[in-house]
Design a protein that fits this description.
- The protein is α/β, with parallel strands linked by helices.
- It has a single domain, classed as 3-Layer(aba) Sandwich (Rossmann fold).
- The protein is built from 8 helices and 6 strands; from the N terminus they run E-H-E-H-H-E-H-H-E-H-H-E-H-E.
- It has a 6-stranded parallel beta sheet, with helices on both faces.
- Helix 8 links the parallel strand 5 and strand 6.
- Helix 4 packs across helix 7.
Length: 223
């Protein structure tokens, strides 16, 4: 619903999602700055298991996913409950359900069942975004972005891992019927380099979407 205080954004709570290197943080930050939004950024670099996971995924997958879930839940519960009189809406660069999406691809079946039980308990206590924006970027461009930002522990990420994560995202998004989801094809835009591309993306995000999955290519007319 439109917040009468909001200057340019019709949704009160927007979450930006996407694969590793899709540009989630950069886009969320620009939107928050542009429209006076409260910005919630994932604290992934503080996770002690992240670098270890990329070196030995089988050994460190469960503690990594569990620690991410706990940290994401605590941060979202605290920040979404805190009223901010000086901002007009909230935007985050992640959605708690990403924990389930990544866990499905990194954990074995027994671990995943335990993880899902814990996830469901936590997820029941959090509000859903008014709009979930998923940034779709092809694997070759993801790898370019990963190399460009230069995090040492990410440089060994393989194409098949990124593709598995993207498939998991697609499977999840297609199953959602009650949440507004905007799938943005980002392969022909560069909102960091070109302000006009950012304007196209903002115009897409600020449309009124029905519940379910809505796919849009920035710069093309809406259907």
């Amino acid at each position: 619903m439109k917040n009468p205080k909001t200057k340019g954004m019709r949704y009160n709570y927007i979450a930006i999602e996407g694969n590793i290197g899709a540009g989630k943080t950069s886009l969320a930050t620009r939107i928050a700055q542009r429209f006076n939004g409260k910005l919630i950024l994932e604290r992934f670099e503080d996770n002690p298991f992240l670098a270890k996971f990329y070196g030995d995924q089988e050994r460190y997958a469960f503690p990594l996913e569990l620690s991410f879930l706990a940290d994401r839940y605590q941060q979202l519960k605290r920040e979404l409950a805190r009223q901010d009189l000086f901002t007009d809406f909230t935007i985050s660069d992640y959605f708690l359900n990403k924990s389930l999406i990544f866990a499905r691809k990194t954990l074995n079946d027994d671990e995943y069942q335990l993880f899902m039980t814990m996830f469901n308990i936590m997820n029941a206590n959090l509000p859903r975004p008014d709009l979930l924006v998923h940034l779709y970027v092809r694997t070759s461009r993801l790898q370019h972005n990963i190399r460009t930002r230069g995090r040492d522990y990410e440089q060994g990420i393989q194409d098949d891992y990124l593709e598995k994560i993207q498939d998991s995202y697609f499977n999840y998004l297609k199953q959602q019927r009650k949440m507004r989801i905007l799938l943005l094809d980002m392969n022909e835009v560069d909102f960091v380099a070109y302000s006009s591309h950012l304007e196209m993306i903002l115009e897409c995000i600020d449309r009124d979407y029905p519940p379910g999955l809505n796919s849009v290519v920035p710069g093309q007319p809406s259907a």
